[in-house]
């Protein structure tokens, strides 16, 4: 026979369908509404320590499961995301594992389905390449073999199309730069976004960029004037050296740089 050690003194409704059960000993614990009804917990109910422990376990499972369902109602989640969410909700490890297994058995959590959906959505809505998407999925706890399988949803022709659009936007952003620097910056941007060298090359080829000598001279003059003013504290030799170095690093033609500096010298005479 189990000794009765506690008596329910009162019940207080909390948020999220939880109740606070106060005991005559001064102790208290939380119970979900479903468990409260199933156990018929009323004022004056006597409970053993074992029964209280079982109620708390059932509450963890019931409350945690409902929290997980609510979290899933907004969008698909990875197993790790569910696990981390339940940690924040203070659901203990045994209950977390049981809840996740229950969700998996109902096909509510499936890392492959989640990953394929994530890849399709990102391929359609973002300008990120496969390497960045791999990293994002790894952060969400997805295993390498599942990631590779999911990436089949983002074939090379679609990668090229996304990269081309990103390259076209970048070209507008860098239109004031030299032809050489434009190419360098676009390549660097696409690499940062996670595209492969082959896809990057195809995207840049599609831009059909051509070097316009007149445009290059105009861009050089605009930047050169800024650099010439910036380095006015130096003597002429040092000033020319610094401006030459900066313009050359920006991808401008050396003969065009010399012609520009000759003009600046004549202006200062």
From TrEMBL:
It comes from the Bacteria. Residues 158-203, 214-261 form the RecX third three-helical domain. One of its GO terms (biological process) is regulation of DNA repair. InterPro entries: RecX_HTH_1st, RecX_HTH_2nd, RecX_HTH_3rd, Regulatory_RecX, WH-like_DNA-bd_sf. Gene3D superfamilies: Winged helix-like DNA-binding domain superfamily/Winged helix DNA-binding domain. Pfam families: RecX_HTH1 (PF21982), RecX_HTH2 (PF02631), RecX_HTH3 (PF21981). Residues 65-103 form the RecX first three-helical domain. It is found in: Cytoplasm. One of its GO terms (cellular component) is cytoplasm. Keywords: Cytoplasm. Residues 110-151 form the RecX second three-helical domain. Its main location: cytoplasm. NCBIfam families: PRK14135.1 (NF010733). PANTHER family: REGULATORY PROTEIN RECX FAMILY PROTEIN (PTHR33602). Belongs to the RecX family. Modulates RecA activity. This is Regulatory protein RecX.
């Amino acid at each position: 026979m189990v000794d009765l050690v506690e008596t329910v003194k009162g019940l207080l409704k909390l948020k999220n369908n939880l109740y606070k059960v106060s005991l005559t000993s001064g102790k208290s614990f939380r119970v979900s509404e479903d468990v409260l009804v199933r156990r018929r917990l009323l004022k004056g109910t006597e409970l053993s320590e074992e029964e209280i422990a079982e109620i708390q376990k059932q509450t963890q499972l019931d409350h945690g499961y409902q929290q997980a369902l609510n979290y899933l109602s907004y969008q698909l989640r990875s197993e790790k995301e569910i696990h981390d969410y339940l940690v924040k909700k203070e659901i203990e490890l045994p209950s977390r594992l049981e809840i996740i297994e229950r969700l998996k058995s109902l096909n509510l959590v499936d890392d492959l389905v989640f990953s394929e959906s994530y890849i399709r959505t990102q391929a359609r809505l973002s300008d990120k390449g496969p390497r960045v998407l791999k990293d994002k999925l790894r952060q969400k706890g997805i295993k390498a073999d599942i990631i590779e399988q999911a990436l089949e949803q983002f074939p090379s022709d679609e990668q090229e199309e996304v990269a081309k659009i990103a390259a076209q936007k970048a070209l507008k952003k860098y239109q004031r730069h030299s032809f050489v620097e434009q190419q360098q910056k676009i390549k660097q941007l696409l690499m940062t976004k996670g595209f492969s060298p082959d896809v990057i090359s195809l995207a840049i080829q599609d831009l059909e960029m051509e070097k316009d000598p007149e445009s290059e001279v105009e861009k050089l003059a605009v930047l050169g004037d800024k650099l010439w003013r910036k380095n006015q504290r130096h003597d002429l030799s040092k000033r020319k050296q610094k401006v030459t170095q900066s313009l050359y690093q920006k991808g401008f033609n050396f003969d065009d740089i010399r012609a520009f500096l000759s003009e600046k010298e004549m202006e200062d005479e």
